[in-house]
Every structure is written in structure tokens, then in C-alpha cells.
Amino acid sequence: MxxxxxxxxxxxxxxxxxxxxxxxxxxxxxxxxxxxxxxxTELKANMKKGGVQQAAVFCSNRASDITHAVNIxxxxxxxxxxxxxxxxxxxxxxxxxxxIVLEQMQKDIDNGKKLKPLIVKxxxxxxxxxxxxxxxxxxxxxxxxxxxxxxxAKAYKIIKQNxxxxxxxxxxxxxxxxxxxxTIVKK
Length: 187
Hints:
187 residues; four-stranded antiparallel sheet; 4 helices
């Protein structure tokens, strides 16, 4: 009888954890879609308006503000940012725990493993970080993130003026670029 009760309790806990994990993933997806869609829409509009150079100005001047505005919309229970092992903007440098996750992602990719679409890490009792990998999956990305043969020289001059320590270059198609990371506090 004790074994049955223990098994039932463990199954209930597992189901509860699965439900909590799905809720966390759903919240993270909402934040990721909101930021990604907003940034992509603005980036495309700027590309259409003034080409790669205008897009570089937009990214340098507005991407951080847009991220901040998206975070405000989540009323402090979720915070999203973009992180990379090769950041352009130092604000996108990973924290130590985030660096470990990004390094593991890169290691898995290097070993031919396919990354999960979302990776959930519990940080504290009620705090989670959800990671969504970002890949270079459009040729236009290489106009600012590629090598010297592909990069737009005028756009990169704008970038270097704003980010003299830029490391977000020399990527190729399908390279791992970094991740969206959403910190969620469940109360």
C-alpha cells in the first residue's frame, strides 16, 4: 500500500512539474515571439527604407530600446534578452550561468546534436531561464555578421562606430549565433 501511495505521489509530482514546465515554456514563447517579431518588423522596414546601412543604424540606436519596451510589457514576471558568446553589444554578453548553457549548446552543435527548440533551467525555487537558440538563417544577416567578403563595408563602419569591440562577425549560414533568454519568476 505504501508503495502505491509513493508511486502515486511521485506521478503527481512529475505531472505537476510537467505542467509547470509547459507553463514556463508558453510564457517564454510569448516573450520571444513578441521581441523577435518586433525586431524583425522594424529591421525589415529599415532595410526597405535605406538598405543595410539604415538597418545598421536601427540596430545600433533602437534594438536595446525595443527590448526594454518589451520587458516593461511583461510587468516584471518575465524578462527577455539576447545573448551571445560573440556579442556585438556588451549588454548582450551572457552571465556566468548563461555562458555555461551557450557553451554547451555550441558543444552539442559541434558534436552533431540537434538543439531542443527551448531549454528550461531552474535557477532558484521560483525562477527559471528559458533559452531559444538563434541561428544565422538568412543571407541578409551576413551583410552585418559575415566575413569581410560578404559584409557591407558602409554598414559595418556604422556598427564599428557604435560597437568598437564588436565580436559578432565571421559567421556563415546556419551558424549558431546565440540565444534568446527569458527569465521567468513564478509566484
